Amino acid sequence: MRSRFFVLLGIVAIILTALAQVLPKQGIQKRIKFPEYDRATGKIKSLLTGEKATPQKNGYILVEEARLETYVYDGAIRNIDLIIEAPRCLFNFRTRVASSAGNMKVSRADGQAAIEGRGFVWDQQSTVLVISNDVRTVMQNGFTANSKNVQDR
User: Fold this and answer.
1) What is the per-residue pLDDT across 79-107, written as a single tens digit (0 to 9) for each?
2) CB of 117 within 8 A of CB of 133?
3) pLDDT value at position 147?
4) How does DSSP classify residue 35?
5) 3-state secondary structure string, 110-145?
6) Three-state DSSP class for 59?
7) What is the DSSP letter of 33?
8) Contact predicate 91/97, CB 8 Å
9) Are 2 and 17 in contact (CB under 8 A)?
10) Pair 70, 81: CB distance under 8 Å
11) pLDDT value at position 59?
């Protein structure tokens, strides 16, 4: 019964979020949020935020000062796992894909690893990130989530 409640709550949140998003015929929106939920659990998987969103042609949205967070869960506790930042990116609301030809950086929330590069594609639904150019990586423990990293948070 309780899990059904959380799934229903997640579905309601998805619907309300979709209604509040920037659509192509709307004007500039400030401090936007585009969450992606796990449909099975209703828990948020990732969240794309930005200081400003401007609708573009073909359903794209230009997000300025973009920040994307991915999450891991320790029971019911949500922890930030990865942080992806870019001065701007294009977000396709229908496909849930963010991309940019510009500079970007990725870091683990625990500070153990960082990647910088130019040009990326992030598929919010499948949580796949591709960095295309000038990639520079600094690692201590790497990007793989393990029990030590989750316990240290």
Assistant:
1) 999 999 999 999 998 899 999 999 999 99
2) yes
3) 46
4) E
5) CCCEEEEEEEEEEECCCCEEEEEEEEEEEECCCCCC
6) helix
7) E
8) yes
9) no
10) yes
11) 83
